[in-house]
Amino acid sequence: MTEVWLKTNRRALVLGMLLPGVLVVCCGAALAWSIVSSKSWILELLLLTLTAVPLWMLGELIYAAFQPRIAYDEGHLVVFLEPARATRVPINIVEVVFLGQGPSQLPKLNGREPETQNVVIRLADSAIDWKHRSVRPAFGHWCEGYITIRGAWCEPITADLLRKLNHRLAEVHRLRQLQAGEKSAKR
Length: 187
Fold this sequence. Notes:
This protein is of the alpha+beta class. Helices cover about 45% and strands about 25% of the residues.
């Protein structure tokens, strides 16, 4: 069973749902009016399309609202930095989680890009296959064995949260070492 370690920023996603939601209601009402009043099928097709696109966007945002940013599942750290898929990183190469700071990838305020606190995950230097991954830049960055998760897209980052993440990571590492020792003792 998947254990959520870092939640997504649902407040931002709910704000993102406002415009598609309004468009779905307005276009859906216009479509219903067009069908009831027997207007042209071309108008109905156009309204159906204008309703379907924001409805699809709304569905994507609702799906994203229920996806964590980081989770643990059966020996893997599951990192959600792509809208449609997660990346499963072997937990044995995850070394530490710490606080970072960097650009938020949000619109500029007063001509300057706002900065945000980030969660940074360091992977083992020996994990050469895990050094780089292409991810959605708005959600984070994955380069040189460091996974950066932008704070604008996750729950508020606090010192307590980072302590909990590192404590849980250490627990998982200890448990896996104990399990590996028990397996080798049975042989």
